[in-house]
Design brief:
Strand content: 25-35%
Largest sheet: 9 strands, mixed
Number of strands: 21
Number of helices: 12
Structural class: alpha/beta
CATH superfamily of the largest domain: Alanine racemase
Radius of gyration: 23 Å
Shape: globular
CATH class of the largest domain: Alpha Beta
Number of domains: 2
Mean pLDDT: 93
Low-confidence stretches: 167-172
Oligomer: single chain
Helix content: 25-40%
Length: about 425
């Protein structure tokens, strides 16, 4: 569920609203393209996920910052009590900037630098998710040099197919993530001997946009087995990190993914009896349906074999369709009148790449130059993947709450863009 819906606008047209804010009015004030996030949707999705585990002692929901790192989004979730899962010093600084307690932050990622490790240790984060023996040894050296102890969980790769897109699967043996399941006991033994390291947990994250419960069950069975093995050999494991990955509905013509309540029941069945603190790292499930990308049609172009709507948003603003073959529903901001013709249309951007599109061969109400469109379910892996390709300005991000809105990331000027670079002195 989200809080974007058609409502009567000031002009008596039926217009898409974000909560109580008219998207066409917002476009006039902010300019297009722009991202728009709904506070009510963010809050609802966080609560639905967290409440699914009500009654279970010791749970911590660490929102995955990489899904949407906007400070307004992070502050909204921090106010609800969310911890944070970060994968860089920049993300950690963002979490700290919105007053997330360090002891509610976990640091993931396969390529943490020693400087990042030092900053995280000095910040007093809860734990590191360690992904290799070389990383473990580097963390030990950094922690020892600073007189600190790093609580760790090895991210264990169970070689399980998450039944998702191959570019967002993380739990197969050929993926770069985690340590092989069979090697985990020996790595925990090594960790126990290294200075500055406290092996405290087990981490497992098998992928993103997972739409079936079976892969989760297969992973959690192995995780439970590993915890038992580690405990039997004397390790005081006190938490398990189950990662994230629960899918969301991107299109209305396909079955809905499992509900958080169904996922929670599975967690309770497989690991609820371990007596451990349970950590979760949802990102897309919270932010995905809470955001849209609003664009304006520049031209309608008839090609030799198809129709193109050229819009002012491009692949550098929303990379997912090109990167992941992702489907995003597209709605006209003004609700079409009954009987409006449907036209099979490619929605393409102005970037000089054939792969610059937001939708291909999509039946859409007939579009005209000047029309506004909304690309739905763009709140996760949208703005965070944006770039200035073709020297296009980054688009603004807007957070709505009821009938109020705030531009939480303004659109930069061309002067801002150029000021970030320096000419060498010989030029």
């Amino acid at each position: 569920m989200h809080h974007f819906a058609y409502r009567a606008g000031v002009s008596h047209s039926i217009v898409l609203h974000a909560e109580a804010v008219d998207i066409s009015d917002l476009a006039a004030a902010v300019g297009t393209p722009f991202y728009c996030y709904s506070t009510a949707t963010l809050e609802r999705h966080y609560r639905v996920f967290a409440d699914a585990f009500a009654g279970m002692a010791g749970t911590l929901v660490c929102y995955s910052v990489k899904a949407n790192a906007n400070l307004g989004v992070l502050a909204t979730l921090a106010r609800l009590g969310a911890g944070m899962d970060v994968v860089s010093e920049g993300e950690l600084r963002r979490a700290l900037a919105v007053k997330v307690a360090p002891e509610r932050i976990v640091f993931s990622g396969v390529g943490k630098t020693r400087d990042e490790m030092a900053f995280a240790l000095d910040s007093g984060i809860l734990a590191f998710n360690v992904e290799s023996e070389p990383e473990l040894r580097a963390l030990s050296a950094v922690a020892e040099a600073r007189g600190r102890t790093a609580r760790i969980a090895f991210r264990v790769n169970p070689d399980i197919d998450a039944k998702t897109h191959h570019k967002i699967a993380t739990g197969k043996a050929e993926n770069k993530f985690g340590v092989p399941f069979a090697e985990a006991p020996s790595l925990y033994a090594l960790a126990s001997r290294l200075p500055g390291i406290e092996p405290s947990g087990v981490h497992m994250h098998i992928g993103s946009q997972i739409t079936e419960l079976a892969p989760f069950r297969n992973a959690f069975v192995l995780l439970r087995e590993l915890v038992g093995t580690l405990r039997a050999t004397g390790f005081a494991i006190d938490f398990v990190n189950l990662g994230g990955g629960l899918g969301i509905p991107y299109r209305s013509d396909q079955p809905a993914p499992p509900l958080p309540a169904d996922y929670a029941n599975l967690v309770k069945e497989e690991v609820g009896g371990l007596g451990l603190t349970l950590l979760f790292e949802p990102g897309r499930m919270i932010a995905g349906n809470a955001g849209i990308l609003v664009a304006r049609v520049l031209y309608v172009k008839r090609g030799a074999s198809k129709m193109f709507a050229i819009v002012d948003a491009a692949m550098n603003d929303l990379l997912r369709p090109t990167l992941y073959d992702a489907h995003h529903e597209i709605l006209p901001v003004t609700e079409p009148k009954p009987g409006t013709p449907m036209v099979v249309t490619d929605v393409a951007g102005p970037v000089c790449e054939t792969g610059d599109y937001l939708a291909l061969a999509r039946p859409l109400p007939e579009l005209r130059a000047g029309d506004l469109i909304s690309v739905m379910t763009a709140g996760a892996y949208g703005a965070v993947l944006a770039s200035e390709y073709n020297s296009r300005l980054l688009v603004p991000e807007v957070l709505v709450a009821g009938n109020r809105y705030s531009v939480t990331r303004p659109r930069p000027s061309y002067g801002d863009m150029l000021a970030k670079e320096r000419l060498p002195d010989w030029l």
